[in-house]
Amino acid sequence: MTRFQRFPTAPARLVLAWRAAALVAAALIIGLLLALSGRNVFELAVLVLKSTIGSRFGLEDLALFMTPLILTGSAVTVTSRIGLWNIGGEGQFYLGAIGAAGVGLYMPGSPIVVLPVMAVTAMLCGVAWIAVPTLARAYAGVNEIITTLLLNFVAGLLTYWLATGPWRDRVTGALASTGRIHVAIPEFWGVVHWGFPIALLVAGGLAAIMTWTSWGYEVRISGANPGAARYAGMPTRARIIAVMLLSGALAALAGMFEVAGTVHRLQGGMADNFGYLGIVVAVLARRSCLAVIPAALLMALILDAAIVLQTRQLAATVVLAITGLVLLLIAIGDELAHYRPVTPAVRLPPSAPVATPKVTT
Amino acid sequence: MKGPGGTFMTEYLKCGGYDAFRRDRLLRPRGLGRRDLVSGLGAGVAGSFLVPGGMRAADRSASDSFAPVAEENALIAFGHTGPITDGGWTTAHDLGVQAVRKAFPKLRLVYVESVPYSADATRIFRQFVAEGAQMVIATSNYGDFIKDVADRAPGVAFLECDGHTVTDNLGWFYITHWYASYIIGIAAGLMTKTGKLGYVGTFPVPSVYASANATLLGAQSVNPACTMNAIAINSWFDPQAATQAASALVDSGCDFLCGITDEPAYLRVAESRGIKAAMWNLGMRQFGPKAYVSSVVLDFSRFYVEQVKARLNGTWHAAPRFLTLANGVDRDSWGETVPPEIATRADEMRSRILAGYNPFRGPIRDNSGAVRVPAGVVMDDDTIYQWDWGVQGMTGLG
What we know:
Radius of gyration of chain B: 21 Å
Strand content of chain A: under 5%
Distance between the termini of chain B: 33 Å
Order of helices and strands of chain B: HHEHEHEHEEHEHEHEHEEHEEHEEHE
Mean pLDDT of chain B: 83
Number of helices of chain B: 12
Shape of chain B: globular
Strand order of the largest sheet of chain A: 1-4
Oligomer: heterodimer
CATH topology of the largest domain in chain B: Rossmann fold
Low-confidence stretches of chain B: 1-63
CATH class of the largest domain in chain A: Mainly Alpha
Largest interface: A-B, 55 and 57 residues
Number of domains of chain A: 2
Helix content of chain B: 25-40%
Radius of gyration of chain A: 24 Å
Strand order of the largest sheet of chain B: 12-10-9-8-6-7-15
Mean pLDDT of chain A: 89
Largest sheet of chain A: 2 strands, antiparallel
């Protein structure tokens, strides 16, 4: 008698298989709905493929989308390894952007000097922004989900204030943004700048640290079983602080790349929800630092496809619904991956009645 | 969550120009290099970043016009700042798009709604180029996000509403809405009892300064004690925030609301609180017939048809263009509760402006009391288009 039983772990190949099935199912449902609304699904599919992975233009866009997504996704993933959720990626992204823009606008010099200073300042700003939630979490047990989330709004408004107030561009005057920053991360392939390979390296480096260093081991144990970690003499609190500050720095670095690589100014709203999308990426990556890269690729594909569909008069809200559908089906697929067929080791004789446990009250 | 456009706080800049107002000095003489143009633009328009752009533009073979396109092969792309159903700004532009569709039934038109003011805008404009658009029209200011794309697609014509940059293939257009605002301001000054006007603003950007300042100056011209309280809601389309801002303004004693949001939310507030309101974008009296005074109404139909026609003929060239009073922007016919004598008085100013009078003349003081426009000096449209300070009596717009 084979039946399906839920296991606490899900092997990677099952997760991958179910996710592939989920994506196919999502594509079929979307295709069916689009066909019912009278659209030429085949033509749309060809256009989406051509504009995303089928052309150099599309590949460049994917890389630009992936750069911040990898970093904000990593920011959430590292905290999830220690059992925490940094929902404040958006705010730390803004602070990174503010720090980078402040340096870029007011520090003269050649890019080779200014860019690293921008990156370091950005990361320090991100660290400072997450410091309060971190200390509150580490010493007072304050839930970091609430504190990091609420600071996002403060950071967003702070950016608006700087961009439309003290740092306002008085040269062109029209944009609610700062002046153009005189240094930029060099581009190496079309519009793709060096932030992309750096983001890949960061994700790879984090994976190596988590897997192969004792620090990474302690982080993982502290996350998996804090009581056991403390009993083993691991400095859990110090690890929590370090991981959260690292997380803030990663999200802030994404902000710096966006300022110095693609936008070249500080603008309100420039985070484009990359901070929040980082959470989605982290969920897709299932707490693996390396899996953040394919997860960011999938998210970038969805976002890029969304832009193509919008030029075909699908409203931005329809695109949001598509994103939600894909993520829902993937979540279902992930859950299904925990189920495996099991066969009872001891077979009952076919004639014997099935033993049911007697419940006594 | 994000959707390109359906974002948390990304809604952004916009605003909007006309050929009838071509000032010769702003038009690029054929064959002249870009740097000549930049110096010709003078004042603040010539951003420092324009000059390197100009040099790049000079490097490539600077073709003055774009090859003619047959109507059936043409693809014209519009990027809108809001949903076309916003009942205001984007609806006004969409009416223009529909006029183009009617005038050129064989050409292909695509549009994207709610293009955010972020790097996503660049992606959307790039997508238009990748799909083979010969002309891309942004119905709002997208600054570098559109210029970066235009610089890399020298064969495609770009037009930006409320833009401030002109390159070989990127031009801008805008409506001179400040005259209509001034006329409505006169009615406001005569109709307010408390002398406090409320302004539902969006971002502290020049188009908002120009609109708010013009209304207040109009009001002060007939009622010197008038003041204005402005609230910036950091969005062009956020009916909820506009409603809250309008309620706060009424609570603080304002009895006449005006603003520059893309939708009619604050008119409903005015109607329910029994005060008056002047709108912007389209005639909107149906949302509050008792409160409705007038509106700065926009009509881009003729302009869009002309521009698309020029592109198809191969005669289009990048230039700054203002749409003038009665040629794309005007005040709406007066509301049912506006006393006829007040309407007549405001319309007298409209006739004078149409005859060439400019009411924006010194002395004009800023809200610290300092004279910013000396007596005898007139603010021309280029200067008003760069307005970044609030006039005396203005609070909330620094």
